[in-house]
């Protein structure tokens, strides 16, 4: 394995990057929305459907055995990836959203009661707000908010005060903000929540692709993320939970796979993790996801982080030189995401024109309307990088952006 | 007064002068800038067209037999698009607007952008303009 991070080779591993869009070389800076997939993942999907496809777990034939082994192997890889205690605590879902809803609808339904407080932060994605509002409404609980400051940093003093003065039962925060890139101090957030007996769900959608998470070291109660933001296929998510919590939780959906015995008089439920995996799961994509984890492991240690840090610093420096441009989210601890606005220009106009130059960024509220409201913005332009991006792509982006601004003014 | 199709043909001709996509967009942006300002009183929540990434307001009035449209948007490219729609559809009768076949969208050479992106709300704008025509028609 190469010890050096070979960007040329890495880019070749992601075939989609090598193409023209609207007559210009593609510059893909929408990695926070979804990441691209290495050839290994694409090949694995192809292999699965060409050689191994069968339904898993109960089949006695060879293909069923292969499919089951492939599916369960990814669970094993995830256990190692997260340093989880056991594979039983790795539950496959369809994505971050599904994982959060699962916890809200099972843990929340069983444990929240009238007057309980569920804390979310002002930085959350809608999918870590709405499921809590739904269960809170049902249970007479209340969702309250950890405030965020001008720079995009969560107010930890206010957080601790909320914990000390309110009946906080649960805390749901993201590890990293998708809209502005802030890395939140989750170790501290978890420690403080546990001090008052509250449980914590970490929305890891935006962090898993950028750095390692050790669920035991961080003492995480629940962690949800999506494979598609981690160089894997769409339609797969992971929910990690502490064993005692998962065991005590009622099942979510009923159906096949999640049962032990069914009769019309009574039904007993299967053990972890199957209790939460009703129905035929997304076998092919789970299998292929394992190869994304292998791919990441094959990269030299720290390379991902160093490459992304270099891209973030360079992009920030280049963008700051543009007149009228303001970066939204200036926390010192950030992943490689730059959210920005330009005086007198609507983000949508920027997005439309950049696309014509082959540059893919995202514009709008980034499913974080409460955060946009906090900053009194209709939306931002967001460029989000992955380790396969380069400084020369940033140059193309900045050049296109300058041209775009000229066209619009 | 030009018919709806005459105006569409004019637009097709105007856009035909540009070869480069950038020039077409610059023209569209220019049309956006030149759109007559909308009375602030019409920028109500009720007049907001749903389904656009940027806010778009549309208001219609009946002047004699004709419908007159007023619109605005926060985003200039969207404003350029509304400006074209207003040029084509405003000052026509409800029946004419209801029956209008807006072929210019495909023929000005920007269809890929204009038609494809749901978030730019072009479809929603056309629909809303036709809804006004239906409503005024029913009242008549
Ligand atoms: C922070 C965060 N949470 C949750 C989600 C939702 O992920 P998914 O749509 O894959 O369920 C996203 C995706 O944009 C996100 O960025």
TrEMBL record, chain B:
Pfam family membership, one: SufE
**Domain Fe-S metabolism associated as annotated: residue spans:** 12-131
Classification via InterPro entries: Fe-S_metab-assoc_dom
Superkingdom of source: Bacteria
Stated family: Belongs to the SufE family.
Q: What is this protein called?
A: SufE family protein
What is the originating organism of this protein? Aquirufa echingensis
